Amino acid sequence: MEETLAVINKLLVEVFNDILLIEESALKSGQFNDVSVTEMHTIEEIGMYEPKSMSEIAKKLKITVGTLTVAINNLVKKGYCERYRSENDRRVVKVGLTKKGRLLYRVHEKFHTDMVKTAIANLSAEEDIALRKALENLSAFLKENYNLNCK
């Protein structure tokens, strides 16, 4: 049992670190080299279609609206997103992706899709269920023990 715990811990840490390094490297070396991983995750939270309010995005990212404002200012300058005033309440600022932002979103989404497809390739139905259950257990543990109840 201890060997299994050690191996799984090592693999989880390696996979987490590898994903972060790959995302950072891909952003730095690709056509989107002006975007940080943090900005990429902001773009991911803005989403593809419906503009979202600043407060919605800040809540999902677990940051203040003030911190988000700085990030959005940078993304607007770089041409990845735009601000809109709500039609219903002009005080509400909404943010949506530009064409350039939607392209980056799709590229990032494809990376994640390919990664997951590779992870589950050749799994039996039982293995698929076991992997899902293990990840659900891990997710629940993290949310319950580290106050991650926003997502």
UniProtKB/TrEMBL annotation:
SUPFAM superfamilies: Winged helix' DNA-binding domain
HTH marR-type domain segment(s): 1-140
UniProt-listed InterPro entries: HTH_MarR-typ, WH-like_DNA-bd_sf, WH_DNA-bd_sf
Keywords: DNA-binding, Transcription, Transcription regulation
Molecular function terms from GO: DNA binding; DNA-binding transcription factor activity
UniProt entry tagged with the keyword Lipid metabolism: no
PANTHER family recorded: TRANSCRIPTIONAL REGULATOR, MARR, TRANSCRIPTIONAL REPRESSOR OF EMRAB OPERON
Name of protein: MarR family transcriptional regulator
High-level lineage: Bacteria, Bacillati, Bacillota, Clostridia, Lachnospirales
